[in-house]
């Protein structure tokens, strides 16, 4: 199935489906990957995953996959292996390993029941290895999206149904919202975890919110009134592990199985509007396809959140007589914008192209420590001769502390004579090269540089500020 596009004017594009309506939102195989996602060449076409399995290591498995597809079943297995080495700086130099195996199974009931536009999805994860970020770097931003607690867990479990000729798609079940919301397609190329689910919501929400590798029960709506425009909204639980906001460092991370389906904390209500744009038409270069996706959105969380400066008796947290617990405020919110845009293409059918992404998040300083986050980067397709499918990327990201968090530092200096944190913005730069070795194997060498690590706070073990760190990495992702 292919979706071709025609001009609507003002740089907007409309989708014309050949043969039949778009199927109920079909999850891509890469939806279970948090980072280092294979980045396709920028195109205004929409395609379902291939059914010939030529881009998988095991192929048709002696006809098993063809037989499963006859009954509406589709199985996908992906494995990611990573090596990380801190070349200089950080908490200590050295190498570490992490890895993940993801298995997903979908069932389209059309073949057996005749029910159109329905889809059942279940997936699981096996996570292993050590945390290079915690052990060797000491940073706030995880060096990898796979830098997660070791476990074997249920990932997602949901049913989706299309209505109104499939212009409205509804999902119900346990979902990871960062596969659809707050996502930058170009940013997903990079390995640093903050280019997936940003560091601001990861730090400001309970358990980091419903983001990889966690899911929460909820319902998601996706509506296409016209195909350049998409409205999305979801309501889900806000605390995937069910733990407290402040978790002791030596305590377990909560629900590691993914089967507890916590609903006791608060509700996260998130919305997003997406617009497809062809910049080539805006620039009067209609023979050059320069596709882009512009998104604006936000969320509201109904739970209670701690004040970064004041205790429950309204004194500064470090002041004499302050209560041990912080002051809690009901509700929390965040707004965001995500812009993916191809801005250069050698010619219409050339494999050479360049794109950029910008993502900005913002929230208040009364309930949040980090109040402004931003990531930006460039991706280049086909710049290396004889390697048209390779992608080079350069990106930077950071998040800034709010006024109350900075004043809390001044309170600490005033009442205790020392600061718990210097509240400087930790920043990271990443240079990456994604190189397909075979249709089913992707090799991605990576370089990252961190400065103002852990906001300039002293290391808990040495008492000294953590030096800026240079990190080398290698990701190998295989699709079975």
From TrEMBL:
Q: What is this protein called?
A: Carbohydrate porin
Which biological process annotations from GO are given for this protein?
Answer: carbohydrate transport
The stretch of residues making up the signal peptide is 1-23
> What PANTHER family does the entry give?
PORIN B
Q: Which family does the UniProt entry place this protein in? A: Belongs to the OprB family.
Q: Which InterPro entries match?
A: Carb-sel_porin_OprB, OprB_Porin, OprB_sf
- Which key words tag this protein in UniProt? Signal
Native species: Acetobacter vaccinii
Q: Which Pfam families match?
A: OprB
Superkingdom of this protein's organism: Bacteria
Q: Which GO terms describe its molecular function?
A: porin activity
One GO cellular component assignment for this chain's record is: membrane
């Amino acid at each position: 199935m292919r979706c071709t596009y025609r001009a609507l004017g003002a740089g907007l594009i409309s989708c014309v489906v050949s043969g039949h309506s778009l199927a109920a939102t079909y999850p891509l195989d890469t939806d279970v990957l948090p980072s280092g996602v294979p980045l396709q060449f920028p195109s205004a076409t929409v395609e379902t995953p291939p059914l010939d399995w030529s881009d998988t290591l095991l192929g048709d498995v002696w006809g098993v996959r063809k037989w499963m597809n006859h009954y509406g079943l589709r199985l996908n297995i992906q494995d990611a292996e990573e090596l990380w080495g801190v070349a200089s700086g950080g908490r200590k130099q050295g190498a570490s390993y992490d890895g993940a195996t993801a298995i997903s199974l979908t069932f389209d009931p059309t073949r057996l029941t005749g029910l159109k536009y329905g889809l059942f999805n279940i997936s699981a994860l096996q996570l292993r290895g050590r945390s290079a970020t915690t052990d060797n770097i000491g940073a706030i931003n995880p060096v990898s999206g796979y830098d997660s607690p070791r476990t074997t867990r249920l990932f997602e479990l949901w049913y989706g149904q299309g209505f109104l000729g499939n212009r409205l798609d509804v999902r119900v079940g346990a979902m990871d919202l960062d596969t659809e919301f707050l996502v930058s397609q170009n940013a997903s190329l990079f390995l640093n975890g903050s280019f997936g689910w940003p560091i601001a919501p990861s730090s400001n929400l309970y358990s980091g919110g419903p983001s990889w590798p966690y899911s929460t029960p909820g319902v998601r709506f996706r509506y296409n009134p016209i195909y350049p425009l998409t409205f999305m909204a979801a309501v889900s639980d806000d605390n995937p592990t069910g733990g407290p906001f402040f978790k002791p460092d030596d305590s377990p991370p909560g629900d590691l199985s993914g089967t507890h389906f916590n609903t006791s904390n608060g509700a996260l209500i998130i919305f997003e509007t997406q617009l497809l744009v062809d910049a080539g038409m805006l620039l009067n270069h209609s023979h050059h396809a320069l596709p882009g996706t512009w998104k604006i959105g936000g969320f509201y969380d109904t739970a209670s959140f701690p004040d970064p400066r004041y205790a429950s008796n309204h004194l500064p947290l470090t002041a004499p007589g302050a209560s041990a617990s912080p002051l809690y405020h009901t509700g929390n919110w965040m707004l965001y914008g995500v812009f993916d845009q191809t801005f250069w293409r050698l010619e219409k059918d050339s494999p050479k192209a360049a794109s950029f992404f910008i993502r900005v998040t913002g929230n208040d300083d009364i309930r949040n420590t980090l109040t402004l986050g931003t990531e930006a980067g460039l991706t280049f397709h086909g710049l290396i001769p004889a390697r048209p499918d390779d992608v080079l990327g350069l990106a930077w990201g950071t998040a800034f502390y709010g006024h109350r968090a900075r004043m809390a530092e001044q309170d600490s200096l005033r009442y205790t004579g020392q600061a718990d944190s210097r509240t400087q913005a930790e920043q990271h730069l990443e240079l990456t090269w994604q190189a397909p070795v075979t249709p089913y194997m992707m090799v991605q060498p990576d370089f990252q540089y961190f400065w103002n690590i852990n906001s300039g706070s002293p290391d808990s073990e040495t008492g000294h500020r953590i030096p800026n760190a240079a990190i080398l990495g290698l990701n190998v992702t295989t699709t079975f």
